[in-house]
Amino acid sequence: METENNKGFPIQAIAIPAVIATTIFLAIFGITESHRLRSYPLTTYNIPIPDDSVSIEHGRRLTHIRGCVDCHGEQMAGSILQKSLHTGLIAAPNITMGEGSAILDYSDQDLIRVIREGVRPNGKSVIIMPSHKFQVIHQRDLASLISYLRNTEPVHRTMPQSRINFPMRLYYFVNRKLALFPANLVKRPVEMPKSTPADRLTMGRYIASSCVGCHGHHLEGGPIPGAPPSWPEAPALDLDGVAGTWSKQQFKEAMTQGIAPDGRHLNEVFMPWPAFGQLTEAEYDLLWEYMQQL
After folding, report:
1. 61: Cβ–Cβ under 8 A, 6 or more apart, which residues?
2. What's the CA gap between 52 and 39, in Å, rounded?
3. Which domains does the chain have, with CATH numbers?
4. HEC string of 111-156?
C-alpha cells in the first residue's frame, strides 16, 4: 500500500501545478487578447490638410520632436523595434505612401484617428504606439504631420506584422501603463485642441508635452512608465533637477550636442536628444521658461 502511494505522489505533484499554470496562462492570454481584439468607436474628424512647403517642412520637424522617427525610422519606412523570445516581434510599419505601406489606403480622417487615438480603420487598436500621449497635439501640428506623410519620399517596403509572445503579454497584464494596445488608454470622448497656445507659459507647456512620457507630467522625473526594468530613471527637469542646476545654454547644448555639463554623453536610446535638436531658438526659450516655473 505504501509503495502504491509513493508511486502516485509524483503525478499529483506535477499535475496540480501544471493545471494551475495552464489556467493562469489561459486567463492572461484571454484577457490580453480581448484587449487586442476590442473594437473602438470611429471618431469623425474634419480637418483640412495643407500641401504647401512650409506645412510639409513643419510636419517633418514634428516627426522628430514628437518621436515618430524613433520607431518608424528617418524615412518613416518602418523598423523592427523588438525581436526576442520575451517580446515576440514588435515592428513599426512603413508609413510613407510607397508600396507595402500600412497607411496606403488610409483617408486623412483615418490617419488623424490612428495618431490621436491609436484606432485603425477597422476599429481595432494599433500595437505599441503612444497615441494616448498625442491627444494634446493641436490641429495645425496634426495637419502638418499628415501633410508630411502624404508628401515625403515614398519607400516601397513591407514590414512584418507584430507578434506578441506571452512574457510581453504578462508584463502588460501587470503593468497597464505599457502602451501595448494604446487605444485602451485613450480617454473618451476625444477632444481636439484647435489652435496654438497663446501665452508663453502655455506654449512652453505644449512643447514640454513631448517630454512628459518619460519625465512625468510635471517633469519631476522617476521610473519611465512601461519601460523595461533595466532602464534608468528619467532625471527631473524641474527646479529640483536640470532647471535648477543647469544654465539655459548648457541645456541647449545638451539637446543639440548630446553632452551634459559634466561631460557625459547622453545615450540616445534613453534620451533621444537629436529629436529635440530640431527645436528652434524660440522654442528652447519657451521650454526653458516653463521648466523654470516647476
Report:
1. 278
2. 36
3. 53-185 (1.10.760.10), 200-291 (1.10.760)
4. HHHHHHHCECCCCCECCCCCHHHCCCCCHHHHHHHHHHHHHCCCCC
pLDDT digits (tens, 9 = 90+) for 128-154: 898 988 988 999 999 999 999 999 999
Alpha-helical runs (H) found in the chain: 2-37, 53-65, 68-72, 108-117, 139-151, 166-174, 200-208, 212-215, 242-245, 248-257, 273-276, 281-291
From the list 261, 203, 269, the residue with the least C-alpha distance to 234 is 269
Rounded distance, CA 36 to CA 184, Å? Answer: 9
In which order are the strands placed within the sheet that holds 163-164? 79-84, 88-92, 163-164
List CB contacts of 247: < 8 A, sequence separation 6 or more: none
The span from the CA of 176 to the CA of 285, in Å, is 35
Take residue 172 and report the three cell numbers written for it.
502588460
- Euclidean distance between CA atoms 49 and 108, whole angstroms: 8
pLDDT digits (tens, 9 = 90+) for 168-185: 999 899 887 788 999 999
Q: For the chain, what's the residue count?
A: 294
Q: Which of 104, 95, 54, 57 is nearest to 77 (CA)?
A: 95
Q: How far apart are CA 79 and CA 162, in angstroms?
A: 11
